[in-house]
Specification:
CATH class of one domain in chain A: Alpha Beta
Helix content of chain A: 40-55%
Largest sheet of chain B: 8 strands, mixed
CATH class of the largest domain in chain B: Alpha Beta
Structural class of chain A: alpha/beta
Number of strands of chain A: 6
CATH architecture of one domain in chain A: 3-Layer(aba) Sandwich
CATH superfamily of one domain in chain A: Pyruvate-ferredoxin oxidoreductase, PFOR, domain III
Number of domains of chain B: 2
Oligomer: heterodimer
Distance between the termini of chain B: 52 Å
Shape of chain A: globular
Strand order of the largest sheet of chain A: 2-3-1-4-5-6
Strand content of chain B: 15-25%
Chain lengths: 186, 390
């Protein structure tokens, strides 16, 4: 990766596993890929029931300033999170969204956007709950920042015991879908 | 007796690379240091420390009691210590205020323990979920009477782990409550934390007396001005009191005993300040401006210094991992060599007062204040650096 850090915001509503997806991305990058990742999250009243978010900074060097103001990449899993966080996305940033839950408007110019029916994929796997891991897979494929191996290790280490296989399948689904999209658009 | 360092009890050491927030890392540091008793009253943004401790207790053989309030929490840990455990309590601003009387008692009884304060914006209820560094003077002088204290301030989850171990070690070595001053940003920030093997973690063991029962005097100081402890039940006669006391631990109500005791309580910290000091220095040799910082603000300062150096300015950095005692000796060495000191703090100017007192106008001292709720913008610190070099 380039020397400049990559700043990511992940948004959704409480209960979707937004924070866990941030933890998995940060853990993969820092623990298993051996670089640096700082995760912060909103702890205020806004995090209790409405649009919640996790911010991750991925960097080859230790991260000094810990907060994300203008993310390079925005991952959204709810319309409210899209409305709240999309105005902060960098001008040439990347938007990843769950296409059945988010309807982007045309107001943001210059960004690249990629969508995925992650809820449907999760339902096909038997658990709607793994939507967030499908999104992690999708993010890994599009961003090309995490090694596939590191992402898988981070998932195995972070999800509840007994659900590892299901979550790895969810990751694979999102990852393969993302890779196909990238191949098509390049 | 001054003790030799030993290695950590492997039972409390979660060796490996972890992705932890500062609160959890602080808890792991305490466990690695041998802390097995925590009494606390949960309060944002410190709750995760005790949450993790209570979950880890069954694995390490520790005990957590959720007390009725912070006053009770801060006295319960002394009971734990005098019964032989290493102990801490954990809180944030409002709870820290309630603990003040007992911090003084801990100083008077010379009870080794750790007070963790994950600082949030104040005064009063303030900003429960947002950071501040405005309890630094309270940590030093919040209780009544004259005393000196030790306070540390980490800037990352890794330092929260490392410095919590150091806090316990210093508390055991100098027999004083040690203040572990995190802030909400560090407490809730998740980063890589490397926990070494138990045999690589150095622990200062409790200073148990070698005197025979009948010969032991609970407040007779050793050559380093610190008295030795006993284990309850080992057959020693012992008495502790918050009243001014002699070497036997019995109350003596006169100015001579008061003078001896208060001087020793202060001297054991002040005269050992050089040993207690822990600094991280970067580029101070040849610097025209030195930024002095602690806690989360040191990271923002480092960013500002990078920006200043990119513009060709000669700027050094001192991060105080131990804030109290303040590193007066090192600052005095730098005073004739630099044009200015810049001190960013997430308060309206607290530790900078000590810096000004030491510098005595022999170099410029610029405070970069911040009322809390958010870290500084690096540009603001950069501006202060530039202004101080004009």
């Amino acid at each position: 990766m380039s020397k400049a850090p990559t700043e990511i915001r992940i948004g959704g509503f409480g209960g979707q596993g937004v924070i866990l997806s941030g933890i998995i991305i940060g853990k993969a990058f820092s623990i298993y890929d051996g670089k640096h990742a700082t995760l912060t999250q909103a702890f205020g009243p806004e995090a209790r029931g409405s649009a919640c978010s996790a911010q991750v900074i991925l960097s080859a060097e230790p991260v000094l300033y810990p907060y994300v103001a203008k993310p390079d990449t925005l991952v959204v899993m709810s319309q409210e999170a899209y409305t709240k966080f999309s105005p902060d996305l960098k001008k040439d940033g990347v938007l990843l969204y769950e296409e059945d839950l988010v309807q982007p408007d045309d107001t943001i110019k210059g960004i690249k956007s990629y969508s995925i029916p992650a809820t449907r994929f999760a339902e096909e796997l038997g658990r709607k709950l793994v939507l967030n891991i499908v999104m992690v897979g999708f993010f890994s494929a599009i961003s090309n920042l995490l090694s596939e191996k590191a992402a898988k290790k981070a998932i195995t280490a972070s999800v509840p015991k007994g659900t590892e296989e299901l979550n790895l399948k969810a990751f694979k689904k999102g990852y393969e879908y993302g890779k196909k999209l990238v191949a098509r658009s390049s | 007796m001054t003790n030799k360092m030993i290695t950590a009890d492997p039972k409390g050491v979660l060796t490996g690379s972890h992705y932890l927030d500062g609160d959890h890392a602080c808890c792991e540091g305490a466990l690695a240091a041998g802390c097995r008793f925590v009494a606390g009253y949960p309060i944002t943004p410190s709750t995760e420390v005790v949450e993790r401790f209570s979950a880890r207790c069954p694995q390490v053989g520790g005990m957590f009691i959720q007390m009725e309030d912070e006053i009770a929490s801060s006295i319960a840990i002394y009971g734990g210590v005098w019964a032989g455990a290493k102990a801490m309590t954990v809180t944030s601003g409002p709870g820290f205020s309630l603990m003040m009387e007992h911090i003084g008692l801990g100083v008077m009884l010379e009870t080794p323990c750790v007070f963790v304060n994950v600082q949030r914006g104040g005064p009063s209820t303030g900003l429960p979920t947002l950071p501040g560094q405005a309890d630094m003077m309270q940590a030093r002088w919040g209780s009544h009477g004259d005393y000196e204290i030790i306070a540390l301030s980490p800037n990352s989850p890794q330092e929260a782990f490392d410095l919590t171990i150091e806090a316990f070690n210093l508390s055991e070595q100098y027999r004083v409550p040690v203040m572990m001053m995190l802030d909400e940003c560090v407490g809730h920030m998740t980063e890589k934390v490397i926990i070494p093997k138990a045999e690589e973690i150095k622990i200062y063991p409790r200073r148990f007396t070698k005197a025979k029962p009948g010969e032991y005097l609970p407040y007779k100081p050793g050559p380093d001005m610190v008295p030795d402890l006993v284990k309850v039940g080992d057959g020693h006669r012992f008495h502790i009191t918050g009243l001014t006391h002699d070497e036997r631990g019995y109350p003596v109500m006169n100015h001579i005993c008061q003078d001896q005791l208060v001087r020793r309580l202060m001297d054991k910290i002040n005269k050992n300040a050089d040993k207690i000091t822990h600094l991280e220095e970067d580029g101070t040799e040849g610097a025209e401006c030195v930024v002095v910082s602690y806690g989360i603000t040191s990271r923002i300062a480092a960013r500002a210094i990078d920006m200043a150096r990119a513009e060709g300015l000669k700027v050094g950095h001192i991060q105080c991992k131990v804030v109290w005692p303040f590193p007066a000796k090192r600052i005095l060495e730098l005073v004739p060599k630099v044009k200015s000191f810049v001190m960013p703090e997430m308060n309206m100017g607290q530790v900078v007062l000590e810096l000004e007192r030491i510098v005595k106008g022999q170099a410029q001292v610029s405070l970069v204040p911040h009322a809390g709720g958010m870290v500084h913008e690096p540009e603001v610190i950069l501006q202060a650096i530039k202004q101080s070099l004009k």
